[in-house]
Specification:
Layout lengths: L4 H28 L14 H31 L7 H38 L5 H42 L7
Helix pairs in contact: 1-2, 1-4, 2-3, 3-4
Main location: membrane
Subunit structure: Homodimer and heterodimers.
Protein name: CASP-like protein
């Protein structure tokens, strides 16, 4: 059963809205994660976590400022006119950039957390309380990476919808 062009547009819009929600949760959870103990500096905060938050913020900005307006425009104007190939190219390119950016943020978040947990668990600590505090911090740091992963998968779904719409608009398809 083939989906109509309007259904593909609505699916892409829905995926983008869910993606924004998951990316917002990523940012909130990552920024709310703190250690219980006060340390002299932020040596336990990894640059990869900053990159993960930045990827989520840039992904949200790209979606809100570029992809959502295009998706809403296409959804409401597609009944009357054929979508512009240029507009669909811009939307598809933005989807691909956002997906790659989010994928790199996922890799940075999971990779840094895994390495930091391994080091924290197997290093010799003079203070057991600091070790436990850092393990709790890094365990909680996996949750924003999971939400970022879900956001990336939703971005991939939006990319599939954009690709399908682009192929239909330019007749670059065999049997769509």
């Amino acid at each position: 059963m083939a989906l109509s062009q309007t259904a593909w547009m609505a699916a892409g819009l829905g995926a983008r809205l869910l993606m924004i929600a998951f990316l917002a949760m990523t940012v909130q959870l990552a920024l709310a994660n703190h250690t219980r103990l006060t340390h002299s500096d932020d040596w336990w905060k990894l640059p990869s976590y900053t990159y993960m938050v930045a990827a989520a913020v840039i992904g949200m900005a790209c979606s809100v400022l570029l992809q959502l307006p295009v998706a809403v425009y296409l959804l409401f104007k597609s009944k009357r006119t054929t979508p512009s190939a240029l507009l669909l190219d811009i939307s598809l390119s933005a989807d691909m950039v956002a997906t790659v950016l989010l994928a790199s943020g996922v890799g940075a978040g999971f990779g840094a957390t895994d390495a930091a947990l391994r080091h924290t668990r197997h290093a010799r600590w003079d203070d057991g309380e600091t070790r436990k505090d850092l393990i709790d911090y890094y365990d909680k740091a996996e949750l924003p990476a999971v939400f970022l992963l879900i956001g990336m998968v939703l971005s991939m779904a939006a990319t599939v919808a954009s690709t399908r719409l682009r192929a239909r608009a330019t007749n670059d398809h065999a049997d769509l």
